[in-house]
Amino acid sequence: MIKPMLTEEIFFKAINTFFRGKPFIFFGTGMSCAVDDRFGMFALQTELVSQVQKCKLTSIQNKEWEFVITSLNKGNDLENSLNSISDHGFLRMITTITANFIVNIDKYYAYEIADGRRQWPAINILKRIYDKLPEGDTILHVLTPNYDMLFEYACDFAGITYTDGFFGGLEQNKNWRGVGQALLEPKRSIYRARQNIVYKQKKCIHYYKVHGSLNYFFHHNHVIRNDAWMWASPDYAERIMITPGLSKYQKLQEYRQELIRPVDDAVDKASYFLFLGYGFNDTHLETYIKRKLTEQACHGLIITKESNKRIEALAEEAENLWIICETIDNNGSRIYNKKHSDWLILTGKKIWDIKEFETYVFGG
């Protein structure tokens, strides 16, 4: 069967139809790199190489690090190169270096965003979706593998209510039920001329940081959140940040109850998925979602600067998945959906940039 050509009119109509649904939102490193490219893997790789060389390593750690350097010199990426590290002490050292590096960048933008001098790039489209949540469906689900706090700072500035499921005082424990009860708000209801008070769920984002966060720690045999520790943590509390490499899969199993399990039900119920600056590098996060896109023909939209083979292979399997990325000559956008014969090229329109995308689709 001959596939029809993709036109801008067809694309525009499809995207507007997509946003009539409520998407489950994934955002990746691309959203942080749009603020500062030091949040990216290359900058982290440079920092790790520099700092590990200054550390006193055991013979086992030295041998593991030699494998990492050899792999990097062969042109392999950081994710695969760190696969050789299994020593627990060395992994904790890698986590500490990673955290210290990100903390210094994160701290700077905490003040910039809070003061309105800087904007997290996806906050406007996020608020647009959040504001349109109907009274009977008040929870928006958002997932990220990022460690930084840019999303949280942006939501606070924009007046968006969000929760990551932790509940309590300064040192908080995972308690989705407690959070749910705290977010109930009284509403007046009139039935047969009688006025009653009913409690309804407040509009809120449920936010899943599945690789941990700068403010997550293992303390008193529990995963806790403590915002007071995120920029300067005590030695007795191990940071929960799942760093690249095969060891992250073991760590994720250890903390699955706190980091991953709450996501499963939300993904199961979703039929629309929006991916922002996400490169599809995490098989453990994507397996079920890929099945939703390919086998159940759920609707998906990927907006990213750089496409890759993983994204494009998925697009060839998923009937209702759209890709928006940068053109090869960096002078516009490429758009693809498998129902159509070829990519649509929009010269001069950089709608792979989420801010420009919002203007293009929704207006000023």
Write structural notes for this entry.
The strands form three sheets. A nine-stranded mixed beta sheet has the order 3-8-2-1-12-13-14-15-16, with helices on both faces. It has a five-stranded antiparallel beta sheet with strand order 4-5-10-9-11, covered by helices on one side. It is of the alpha/beta class. The chain has helices at residues 8-18, 29-33, 41-52, 59-73, 78-81, 88-114, 123-131, 150-158, 176-182, 247-254, 256-259, 261-269, 283-294, 309-317, 354-362; strands spanning 24-27, 139-144, 162-163, 166-168, 172-174, 184-191, 194-201, 204-209, 212-219, 222-225, 238-241, 272-276, 299-303, 321-326, 332-336, 344-347. The longest helix is centred in the N-terminal third of the chain and has 27 residues, at 88-114. It contains 15 helices and 16 strands. The two termini are 40 Å apart.
